[in-house]
Amino acid sequence: MSEGKELKHGYALSWLGHLNAIREAAKLSTSLIIEDDVDWDIGLRTQMPQIAEAVRKLSNFKVDHEESKYPPYGLDWDVLWLGHCGDSIPLDESPIQLEDSTVPPYVSSWETRISPHPNHIRWVHQSSGPICTYAYALTDVGAKKILERDDHGTDAFDIWLHIRCKGGEFRCITVNPELFHHHEVAGRKDSLIKGKNGVEVVENEMTDNIWHSARCNSISKTDAVVTCMSPEPKEEPKED
What we know:
It is a single chain. With about 240 residues, this protein is α+β, with helices and mostly antiparallel strands. The chain contains 5 helices and 11 strands; from the N terminus they run αββαββββααβββββα. The radius of gyration is 19 Å and the shape is globular.
């Protein structure tokens, strides 16, 4: 940490958890690491083929057509940021736009090209600096790059990774809007990382930015597909 600052107990535990997972990821060609309270759309399997193709294209992965098998997402990247709180779409790159019927009709993001209405478009782009590590994939090379660093714990893990991606130290790709998001259960909201300072109560369980939540649909008592996103934000009237 910076001089005079101390890493909070919860953040230290988060670091240990991520590092344990990353050590295992270093033994495999690619790995997906997810936090234990994430959620995803019930259509996740239909989302991934075009995401994989876009990642290969964006990273300039060359496919040897003589081989019957190749990594679906290629290997020419370090971090694939699939679940996050938001990321900016770069203006000076060539982000890939995908028509995706599973993109919600509205999302919450600081990127104005997708928020509040993404128009069923999902972007795959070089990371500008996403926040939150709800879900991220690593190549073995990316995992080893993280493990070889000597500055672990200088910030909360997601901020540390954000800085390395933003600075170009790691080859990072973002899917935007995200495919994985934090799920809120009903009741009192506490955070292992942030502690119990302050009380927040969630009236109904919900997952923002995920149209047809796997968690909410798994406990639904109806045959109809349900959504449990927060209400659509009201747009501010434009000034004349």
